[in-house]
Amino acid sequence: MGASLYEPINVYKPIAPDIGIVDGPFEYLTVGGIRLPLPFTTRMTVVRLSNGDVVLHSPVEFDDRLAKELQRLGRVRHLVSPNQFHYAHIGEWARAFPETISWASPRVRQRALARHADISFTRDLDASAPDEWGLEIDQMLFPGGYFKEFIFFHKASRTLILTDTIINIELDKISEPWRTAAKLFGMYHPYGQIFFGMRLPLLFQRRKAKAAIAKIHSWHPQRILLSHGRCIDSNADEVIRRIFGGPPH
Ligand SMILES: [Fe+2]
After folding, report:
1. How many CB atoms lie within 10 A of CB 113?
2. Using CA atoms, how far apart are residues 167 and 149, in angstroms rounded to an integer?
3. Rounded to whole angstroms, how far apart are CA atoms 225 and 162?
4. Helix or strand or coil: residue 21?
5. What DSSP assignment string belongs to 151-179?
6. What angle do CA 160, 162, 163 make, to 5 degrees?
7. Of residues 131, 132, 151, the one with CA closest to residue 142
8. What is the distance in A from the centroid of ligand 1 to the CA of 248?
């Protein structure tokens, strides 16, 4: 069985008022500049702010028709790279929308430079949300060593927005070797788990991990959006307890 997409792709799928997702086309693992025939899917989250600005979190490949659809939501303004691995399409969106601010995650500048990606980041994400979206979205840096990422919480819809922190692959939608890897590390639906690369760093940074998990609990998310695999749209509290443990005392 081959890999399959979260059809339809490149269309805005509303989740709740002012927030939705766009499932993208296949991405391919690149090692040493060589694109390997190993497709996987990725997803972006779109948030409309109260001033009409639109945030694209982990943008999928640029698509003209999609860009027009998003313009109908508001003014595409913020392009967010939540971690150093999700940045590849920010340059394409920034060229189409020159007024956008491109937000950098830790190490993403070096990574983009090393891969000769045509992207210039304008601002850096910080431990707390910037004025630009602080009213609608909270954020924090989730510890994970090399794999650390910024995670976000859309307050009105109580949506936790993750990138790679939790992976929840649907085994029948992915081909080898991802399928075996997802099984091996328990990162598949309905048992989605913390991305395996983050687990050891989390053990070594207990204090930071505890604080981050306490913050996730304090948000009381109702649903969890993920970049890879199936999103979690019910029992988010239960899923968070299973994956991260209960709120620390
Ligand atoms: Fe990823």
Report:
1. 10
2. 13
3. 6
4. strand
5. EEEETTTTEEE-SSSEEBB-GGG--TTHH
6. 165
7. 151
8. 28
Count Cα atoms within 13 angstroms, Cβ side, for 13: 14
Give 228 Cα–ligand 1 centroid separation in angstroms.
Answer: 6
Structure confidence by residue, pLDDT tens digits, 173-219:
999 999 999 999 999 999 999 999 999 999 999 999 999 999 999 99
Separation CA 35–CA 233 (nearest Å): 33
pTM, whole model, 2 decimals? 0.97
pLDDT tens for each residue of 89-106? 999 999 999 999 999 999
Q: How far apart are CA 78 and CA 140, in angstroms?
A: 17
Cα–Cα distance, 172 to 50 (Å, whole number):
39
What would the two tokens of residue 80 be?
């967010």
**Cα 249 to ligand 1 centroid, rounded to whole Å:** 31
Q: In the structure encoding, which two tokens stand for residue 82, read together?
A: 């939540």
Are the C-beta atoms of residues 102 and 112 closer than 8 Å to each other? Answer: no
Q: Which of 54, 46, 55 is nearest to 23 (CA)?
A: 46
Q: Which residues of 148-158 are buried (b: 16+ CB within 10 A; e: fewer)?
A: bbbbbbbeebe
**CA 227 – ligand 1 centroid, Å:** 6
